[in-house]
Amino acid sequence: MKTIKLRQLSLVNFKGIRELTVNFADAETLVCGDNGTGKTTLFDSFLWLLFGKDSTGRSDSNFNIKTLDGQGKAILHLEHSVTAKLTVDGREMELQRKYTENWVKPRGSVEEQLKNHVTEFYINGVKLSTKREYDMEIAAIIPEDVFRMITNPFYFTSMKPEAQKAMLFDMAGDVTDEQVAGICEDFKELLAQLNGRSIAQYAKEVAAKKRACKSELEVIPSQLETAKNLMPEEEDWVALDAEASEKKQEIQLIDCLIADKNKANQQEYERKAKIQAAINEKRIALANREAEVKQQANNGRNEAIMTLTKAQDEAFMLRERKKMEEGKLDRLNGQLAKAEQELQALRAEYRTINAEQLTYPDGAFVCPTCKRPLEVADVEAKQQELQANFNKDKAKKLEANKQKGMAVKKEVVELTAKRDASLAEIEGYTAQLMKKVTEAEELEKNLPEAENVDMLLAADQASIDIKNEITELQNQLTIEAKPEDVTTLNGKKQYLNESLQELYKRMGKREQIDRANKEIAMLEEKRKANAQQLADLEKWEFTAMQFQKDKDAELLKRINSLFTYVSFSFVDEQLNGGEKLTCVCTVNGKPYPDVNNAGKVNAGLDIINAICKAKGITAPVFFDNAESVNQLIPSESQIIRLVVTKDKQLTIK
């Protein structure tokens, strides 16, 4: 078993204690003093040294470490630290945590300002680089959760029931679900339903299904009531069917009478339709004959007009072609003028190039290296070289000018030929246009006079005959036959149809009643199914509760065998007679909250002894308000009792 013992604890400026060093005995140490002398602070300092928290679990950012003055303000420029000397399985170890102020002097300021606080960590005098490294070293000695459970007799019972059960299960070793399932067949069926899930997970699903069933069962009564309220009253369906059949027979008889009368009306309509079709045919024939007469009457004039129109169109086309050719001539004249100007410029340039003479530049006859004048022979050679280069360059320029001039001259010749051709085209168009205009004027003078078509039509015998036939047919059309009156029959038929529709509307209630009955039957089946499902789910919950109780009972045998004075139960009796799964601690059969302080302290020490044995580790146990306990039960842990006395300063015994 790992044994941790506190040998010495030193405080410097920690929660009002300026400086204090306490040495602890191997087995039991009494720390005595009046209220406010620092007994609890001693326990807080040890927890802060290890975990950065006080005895209530608050971190150092939530409780004041610093020493305060009379006005309750922190005294600055102090270093705060806690140092402990421990033995872990006989090996000595020193731990230290410092809380220091970080002062800086801003640029341009003569006074320092407090920027922040820095926590430093030391093990055996060696400073660690990070808090994480220090926490890992402490966790290697003892985890924080285990430390709190085995150093404070009131800590375990203050934990949530779920956390207590988890620790107790860890101490006693778990009982498998399969072992519990061997108790009865219902438990085996329960595990089979889980399909790999835990009971807690499946219980959530069951609870959700129960809520869904209850929700359905809550709304079904209102749905049933609505279906019943919407159901129409029953009627004599046989009598309604017979009445509807009778009215349909009457309507069929009326339809036959109306059909007979409509047949006579239809025959008269067809006679008039044939006469009207004949009239239309005659009118078309008359229109064709009149068009034929008009065409014959103006045939000569129409041909003359067509000949005149053709001559006028041809004159228009000649006029347009002449305009296009004149535009083309203007463009050619412009291009020819531009080419002749360019040719004149090239001739002037040729004369300028041909008149150029060689001139010697300054320094042409001076040595470029030594800057001395050249010898006479060298000067002559240089002159000959310069003259040859000049003549060569001049000949090259003249040749280029000549080639460009020949090209431009060729272009002038081509443009002149095109211009002459265009002039010839314009002259041809002018002659043709004059001829065609004279022809059109002559045709227009000799155009025949138009015939009097109305007189020709009035004298045309074919037109007169067709008009007489149309008049005869129109006379036949005006002969009226008296139509058969079906108004009374239609009115009676409408009345019967309306009565029949009213019967159908009443008979439609039968289908509404059938649908309502089906809806009611479906809702009843749904209610029964949900009620059965709810009962099955509640049975599963009862079986799961019993399973957990039996499993807890087996665990309790193991768990309670670990303790001497306390025992645990996982079932809490409810006022309504029900049970709630939880974790209840009792001391000699009495609920833990009901025992006195001494009983609670020894119960806590009994729990600490069991946890230490299960975890294989002991650590110093701090008992606050230990003056209320005369006798502690035996323990392998180091005991530090914090006792309220009338001593004005801490006294260590």
Report the portion of residues in β strands.
5-15%
Care to count the β-strands?
14
Ranges where pLDDT stays below 50 over 5 or more residues in a row are none
Number of helices: 15
What is the CATH first-level class name of one domain? Alpha Beta
Using the alpha-carbon principal axes, give the shape: flat
Determine the mean pLDDT: 84
CATH topology of one domain: Rossmann fold
How far apart lie the N and C ends?
27 Å
Q: What structural class do the secondary elements suggest?
A: alpha+beta
Task: Classify the helix fraction into a percent range.
Answer: 55-70%
As a whole number of angstroms, the C-alpha radius of gyration is: 64 Å
Query: Largest sheet, if any?
Result: 7 strands, mixed
Please tell me the CATH architecture of one domain by its name: 3-Layer(aba) Sandwich
Short description:
The protein has 653 residues and is of the alpha+beta class.
How are the SSEs placed, and which strands pair?
Blueprint (H helix, E strand, L loop, with lengths): L1 E13 L2 E7 L4 E6 L5 H13 L28 E9 L2 E14 L8 E11 L2 E2 L3 H11 L2 H8 L3 H4 L2 H12 L4 H5 L3 H10 L4 H32 L6 H61 L1 H56 L21 H70 L7 H7 L1 H17 L9 H74 L5 E8 L5 E9 L2 E2 L5 H19 L1 E2 L2 E4 L14 E6 L6 E2 L1
Parallel strand pairs: 1-11, 3-13, 12-13
Antiparallel strand pairs: 1-2, 1-4, 3-14, 4-5, 5-6, 6-7, 8-9, 9-10
Helix pairs in contact: 3-15, 8-14, 9-13, 9-14, 10-11
